[in-house]
Amino acid sequence: MLLPLLGWLMAAPPTAHAQAGCPDVLLGDSLAVGMAPFAQAQGFEVIARNGAGIAWLRQQEPRCARRLVLVFGTNDLRGMRNEEADQYLRQISAVMERWPAARIIWATPGCFNRDAQLEQGSTALDRVLARRVNQADDALRHLPAIHRGREARCTYESHDGVHPTGEFYRSWWSTLVRSMERTQVAATR
Q1: Angle between the N-to-C axes of helices 30-41 and 166-182, in degrees from 0 to 180, rounded to the nearest 10
Q2: Tell me: the pLDDT tens digits for 18-29?
Q3: Residues 60, 136, 125, 148: is their CA dihedral positive or negative?
Q4: Sign (positive/negative) of CA torsion 176, 182, 187, 189?
Q5: What is 111-139 written as a DSSP string?
Q6: 7 burial class (0-12, 13-18, 19+ CB within 10 angstroms)?
Q7: How does DSSP classify residue 155?
């Protein structure tokens, strides 16, 4: 079974316009708002809103992007169970299929030590992601589709238990960009 979330990366190759003449885009929720200054300093266009959830993401007009970094999911996690997490992956995939981007990476939510319902949802989402990745065809394993938050950001300084400090945002942003630069999506080779 092919990984549904990665399916949109293997769709039709991006147009030359998407590769050459389109901006880099950071799309997301309040976590994207927090890393916006670092993204903008590297020329990324930022489309982000505090409190954004899947309904907001669906309303965004797809646009051409050279690289698309999606930092998203925290506002939809509260109390999410495995079945809902599996459906959530399909919803994210359906939205992202519409974006004509040469490269896409989704940074998923991390850990939430101070909020049991967010932590439950994050754990469920990560469990489903791990299962899907393990079921993926070997040819798909190299794709830079997912930057798993529970592997990447479970220990960080935060004043509210959700949003990192400015220094961590800078570091996290650098990691996302390096991850995307290291890996070529098959359609762009």
Answers
A1: 70
A2: 456 899 999 999
A3: negative
A4: positive
A5: --TT-HHHHHHHHHHHHHHHHHHHHS-GG
A6: middle
A7: S
Q: Which CB contacts under 8 angstroms, 24+ apart, belong to 154-160?
A: 154/110, 154/111, 155/111, 156/110, 160/114
Look up residue 119 and give its two tokens: 């932590």
> Within the chain, how many helices (H) and strands (E) appear?
8, 5
Q: CA-CA-CA-CA torsion for 4, 99, 146, 172, nearest 10 degrees?
A: -170
State how far the Cα of 75 lies from the Cα of 30, in Å rounded to an integer: 9
Which pLDDT tens digit goes with each residue over 95-139? Answer: 888 898 888 888 888 888 889 999 999 999 988 888 876 665 443
Decide if 84 contacts 92 (C-beta within 8 A).
no
Q: How far is CA 28 from CA 33, 49, 135, 157, in A?
A: 7, 7, 27, 21
The model scores a pTM over 0.70: yes
DSSP 8-state secondary structure symbol assigned to residue 25: E
How do residues 41-99 score in pLDDT, each as one tens digit? Answer: 999 999 999 999 999 999 999 999 999 999 999 999 998 998 899 899 889 988 888 89
Q: What is the mean pLDDT of residues 139-168?
A: 71
Q: Of 178, 93, 185, which is closest to residue 141 (Cα–Cα)?
A: 185
**Cβ pair 5, 145 in contact under 8 A:** yes
